[in-house]
Amino acid sequence: MSGNQDPLKDWIVATWRDMFGDSGNARSQQLSENARPTHIGRFLPLSLIVIAAAAAAVCAPRLISVAAANTRATEVLTTLHGYRVALIAAAALLIAVDVLRHRSHRWSAMLESVVRQTTGNLPKKVAVPFPSGWWVLRRATITLPRGTVVRPKQFEELSRAIEAIAGTTATKEVKVRHEAHRDRIVIRRRTIEPDERSERHKALQSTLDATSIFTDPKVTVSARDEHGVETCYRISFERSMNAGSRGFQGKVEEALIANAGEHESGRHWTTDWHPADGFLIMRLVAPMPSRIDHPLELVDENLRHLPYATGEADRTFIWDISTRSNKPHCLIVGPTGGGKTSVIRTLLTEAARRGIPFVGVDPKMIELDGLEGYPGCGAIIYDPIRAAMLVRALHSEMMARNTYIHDMKIEGSQLPLMIAVLDEFFILSGKWQRLAKTGDDETRALLKELDPLNAWADLAVLARSAGIRLLLGVQRPDASLFGGASGNARDNFGTRISLGNLSQDGALMMWGDSTVGREVDTSVPGRGIAIGEDGSPADGQMWWTPNVDRHPNKWNQLSEGEKAIVDGLAPVEAPGFTCYSTELAEFIETERALAKRAREYGRAAEPIVIGTGDAATTSTVAASTTPSAELPDAPHAADDDFADVIPASAVEAGQTVLVDDDEGELVPVTVTAVDVTRDGKGEVTSTVLTVGAGRVKTRITFDATGVVVLPEADLVGAPA
Ligand SMILES: Nc1ncnc2c1ncn2[C@@H]1O[C@H](COP(=O)(O)OP(=O)(O)OP(=O)(O)O)[C@@H](O)[C@H]1O
Question: 215 and 162, same structural domain?
Fold first, then answer.
């Protein structure tokens, strides 16, 4: 094989072949140089005659002397000689034209050959306009036989081959187009538009191109900010089944956001999907605020919407308590210090400013006490027996309201709404269970008659149409909460809020997804997950509502800004508490009278300080914190102070719990084994805790709603 190349020789040989063919037989035009059929005709130079005439004109004096005898020839030669300059110029011009024509001819031959090799079809015609371009082909049109099918893969090869031979320059590129309806391939040279796309735009497009997420994805910029920085992209794609699925959208959003990177404005990316129209919008939204003070203006004017949190893009989360709501009752899960009380305060103050009254149970005595006496507050109950009476009275109220709706032939939505809050449900049910076991005969009989757990479960199912809304607070989600005995939170408590981090099981119970609520930023107080209007959970920053208690000991702890919030939120007119049952009306009146009496006569026991030196018993409470007769007193002291209560089924082996001894006193014991029995649906039916060490072991059996008292607060999921 010879590596030597002689372009001039090659060109001459090629030209010769083009003019005369390999065999020199100018009539065999239907075979190409490699003996394959061709529709490209032989190349006919236009310049040959003029070259001959110019040569004759130049050589005329010598030719005249040779042909002197022929006067006619002498005359012609003399005339030609007179035009020799013009003839030389014409010959030169035609030679140049022929050279260019030959180049076009070569392009035609090359294109025909490429089409034949890549598609297997012999083009009917290859039209390369004059001048064709020397190093690069300017344009061409290849006509294919009628009905020629060019498959995508063939076309891809053909385009690549044409782009390779037609040449690309720094400013121009070749584009090949197949016009199937006209049986032709069109080759055009276009100026390369400088790629002015931003790095982010390119990254998004190339990510989508490189993956098979979408077919034919195209990223375009939809909006820029005042500095020209891109703030919104439109990503179009071919419609597919996948694009409508939430899971798919979530994954694509994650990938796109990761590729787009952090935006210089500090705002976050989010996506809005339009799968039916084949596009999605990726836009910037305000980041999640790290603190939101309860806004004083009505963020949501709807009087049946209670707003309580803000999410990304200034999205407001609401508890829709209207009759049409499909999430009329609310469940709040939050560990100690997670901000549960603040959310409850937000919801209740929002209710009060919308004319909706409330009544609450606070078994810990320190969560909702500040709301006692607040406009719209019927009562806050701390005592477990009174709480059981309230739940039963609420049940009677529900029945009375339903009767009223029935008798008066009105709609449930025409009755005034009211909210019943039951905070720290497990502590309350723990107290009920303990009293049912260790209380005196009268207490036990009363609890049996009131049957508060069943009354509550009934309320959860039926209260909605009677205009009663329930708000349930717990420290952690537990399977027992989602069972029938506590109101079946999964079905009935559609508005859900979780604060702090959830366990995997907790996430499944609350959100039906073991990953949601697992990575909440617990360094931000009030950060959690809430259910949006579209029914899906999303990150939210709960509004901060300070304690609305006007007692100087509380009030003086507030900053000026917090005091302004409390002042601004207070409704001018206290919402009236309309009762349809005498039970509830009497209960609230009695409770208010009891609370008044407690404020007037009640005295919290003086604290006892042990081990500070000489005095065994010393009052160490500063004068300002000692309740005085003029000031509203703290609720009367707890009969038994539960730090925390959890369902028996949530106890883990090795954990210390408090159990009643023979005298009804709570004593700490270590659980050595936990045996939970569940029914076919996975609901707890009973739990057996084995306590004690060595050979003396005791087995304590709890029913489905059984709870145990912890010696100290359960900090699972609490803010770090
Ligand atoms: N939404 C919020 N925004 C800002 N700070 C908050 C928010 N919620 C709570 N905090 C802060 O966290 C502290 C604890 O909040 P809160 O008393 O509401 O928690 P909790 O869940 O009720 O806890 P516990 O059940 O132990 O009383 C508050 O004193 C406040 O400083």
Answer: no
Are 119 and 149 in the same domain? Answer: yes
Q: Which of 310, 341, 369, 476 to mutate to test the pocket of ligand 1 (most atoms within 8 A of CB)?
A: 341
**How much is the pLDDT for 37?**
75
User: For 629-667, how does the pLDDT look when each residue is reduced to its tens digit (9 = 90+)?
Assistant: 333 343 343 445 566 788 888 888 888 888 877 777 777
Q: What is the pLDDT of residue 439?
A: 87
> Residues near ligand 1 with C-beta < 6 Å?
291, 334, 336-342, 367, 525-526, 542-544
Task: Transcribe 680-707 into DSSP letters.
Answer: TTS-EEEEEEEE-STT--EEEEEETT-E
d(CA 360, CA 379): 6
Q: Do 319 and 273 reside in the same domain of the chain? A: no
Of 207, 671, 700, nearest in space to 433 by CA: 700
Residue 637 lies in a domain: no
CATH of the domain at 706: 2.30.30.30
Residues 204 and 320 in one domain: no
User: 2 lies in a domain?
Assistant: no
* 344 lies in the same domain as 475: yes
pLDDT at 597: 83
Q: Which residues contact 225 (CB under 8 A, 6 or more apart)?
A: 231, 265
- CATH classification of the domain holding 359: 3.40.50.300
The percent of residues above 90 in pLDDT, for the chain, comes to 47
The parent domain of residue 443 ranges over 304-593
436, part of any domain: yes
Q: DSSP for 280-299, please give it.
A: EEEEEEPPPPS-EE--SS-S
Q: How far is the CA of 498 from the centre of ligand 1 (A)?
A: 13
Q: CA nearest 292: which of 245, 363, 218, 342? A: 342
377 and 232, same structural domain? no
Task: Report yes or no on 120 lying in a domain.
Answer: yes
379 and 342 housed in the same domain:
yes
* Least confident residue range of 259-268, 326-335, 633-642: 633-642
**Number of other CB atoms surrounding residue 139 within 10 Å:** 16
Q: Which residue's alpha carbon is nearest to atom 22 within ligand 1?
A: 341
pLDDT at residue 264, rounded to an integer:
85
Q: What is the pLDDT of residues 200-248, one digit of tens each?
A: 999 999 999 988 889 889 999 999 988 888 999 999 999 988 888 888 9
SS3 713: coil
Residues 260 and 374 in one domain: no
Per the structure, the count of domains in the chain is 4
Residue 309: what pLDDT? 97
Q: How much is the pTM?
A: 0.65
Residue 341 alpha carbon to ligand 1 centre in Å: 6
State which ligand 1 atom lies nearest to the alpha carbon of 366.
27
Name the 3-class secondary structure at 442. Answer: helix
665-704 confidence digits (pLDDT tens): 777 888 888 998 888 777 778 889 988 766 678 888 888 7
